[in-house]
Amino acid sequence: QVELAESGGGLVQAGGSLRLSCAVSVRTFSSYVMGWFRQAPGKQRELVAQITSGSSTGYEDSVKGRFTISRDHANSRVYLQMNSLKPEDTAVYYCAAREVTRPDYDYWGQGTQVTVSS
After folding, report:
1. DSSP SS3 for 63
2. Could you count the other beta carbons within 10 Å of the beta carbon of residue 34?
3. DSSP SS3 for 96
C-alpha cells in the first residue's frame, strides 16, 4: 500500500516561486517512479515532471528550465520546486507513484491547489 500526501500549494504572484512536497508512506520507496501531475479547470490532467529511483528526471516542455523535481530517499519525500511561475501554471497539483515495472501511475495524493495571479 502506498499513501501520498502533498503540501506547499498556495497563492503566488507571477514570477514567484513555490515548493511542493509529497510525503510518501511505502515500504520500499526506491521501487517507485514518482511524478507530479497537474489539472487545470476544464483541462485534462497532465504529467509535469517525473523522477526515477536513480534520480533521472523528465519534464513537460512548458516547465523545462523553471521546475525541478527531486526526491529524498532517506525521508521518502518528493519535491517540486517551481520558479518563474506563470498564470497558466494555475492548477491542482498531484503527487503520484508507479512501480518501476508498471507503465501506469496507480497511487495518487489528494492534490494541492496552486494559484498564480497576474
Report:
1. helix
2. 27
3. strand
- The grid coordinates listed for 20 are 511542493
Residue 49 has a pLDDT of 98
Report the distance separating Cα 27 and Cα 37, nearest Å: 23
The grid coordinates of residue 23 equal 510525503
Gap between the Cα atoms of 35 and 20, Å rounded: 12
Distances (CA, A) of 48 to 30, 39, 91, 95: 20, 10, 11, 10
Give the Cα separation of 104 and 100 in Å (integer): 10
Give tens-digit pLDDT for 18-50: 999 999 999 999 999 999 999 999 999 999 999
Give pLDDT tens digits for 77-94.
999 999 999 999 999 999
| Region of residue 55 (left: phi > 0; alpha: psi -120 to 50; beta: else) | left
Mean residue pLDDT across the chain? 97
**Pure H helices in 10-97:** none
Give the separation between CA 84 and CA 98, rounded to whole angstroms: 29
- Which residue matches cell numbers 494559484? 115
